[in-house]
Specification:
By secondary structure, this protein is an alpha+beta fold. It is built from 4 helices and 6 strands. Strands 1, 2, 3, 4, 5 and 6 form a 6-stranded antiparallel sheet that branches. The protein is globular, with a radius of gyration of 15 Å. It starts with a strand and ends with a strand. About 35% of the residues are buried.
Length: about 160
């Protein structure tokens, strides 16, 4: 199972972050074919909650995908098409697409798999609960459902779309 995390906290071409996300989902579907997409969630910016809040979602690639490094390059290309700039680590951005997991691969190179935030971030786990609650992190062996239940706090709030 290939898991993606999506987020947006800045408008792009006049589109609010929630609309940027909807357009990004369509762009990913055009590139990869089938996707299983969670609902959208509003969450405070991380790690600096004084930054603009994020709209987040998760996706499962249901079709075929290239090897992880090539997939990451494609995801970065989609981000760039939506005006993504890498000015500040974890800063506000028009679009962020993270490769959260690629099956049971554990890798420390490029990309790091699973994503370092997969097991601890509510804005990642909340949307994954909708589409992949039984997925087991290859690092800990815990399911998304178990990881979500262990969170101290959940600040991600489900939005209607």
């Amino acid at each position: 199972m290939i898991l993606l995390g999506l987020g947006s906290s800045l408008p792009y071409c006049g589109a609010a972050p929630q609309d940027v996300m909807a357009h990004a989902v369509r762009a990913l579907e055009a590139v990869f074919g089938g996707l299983l997409i969670s609902g959208f969630y509003a969450s405070p910016a991380w790690p600096d909650p004084s930054d603009p809040p994020f709209i987040n979602a998760a996706a499962v690639l249901t079709g075929s995908a290239p090897r992880p490094a090539d997939l990451l390059d494609i995801l970065h290309g989609v981000e760039a098409a939506f005006g993504r700039r890498r000015d500040r680590l974890n800063g506000p951005r028009t679009l962020d697409i993270d490769l959260l997991a690629y099956g049971d691969i554990i890798a420390e190179g490029r990309p790091v798999l699973p994503h370092p935030g997969l097991e601890t971030r509510d804005f990642v786990l909340a949307p994954l609960m909708e589409i992949a609650p039984g997925y087991r992190s290859p690092r800990s062996g815990r399911t998304i459902q178990d990881l979500y239940a262990r969170l101290d706090r959940v600040g991600a709030i489900r939005l209607s779309r």
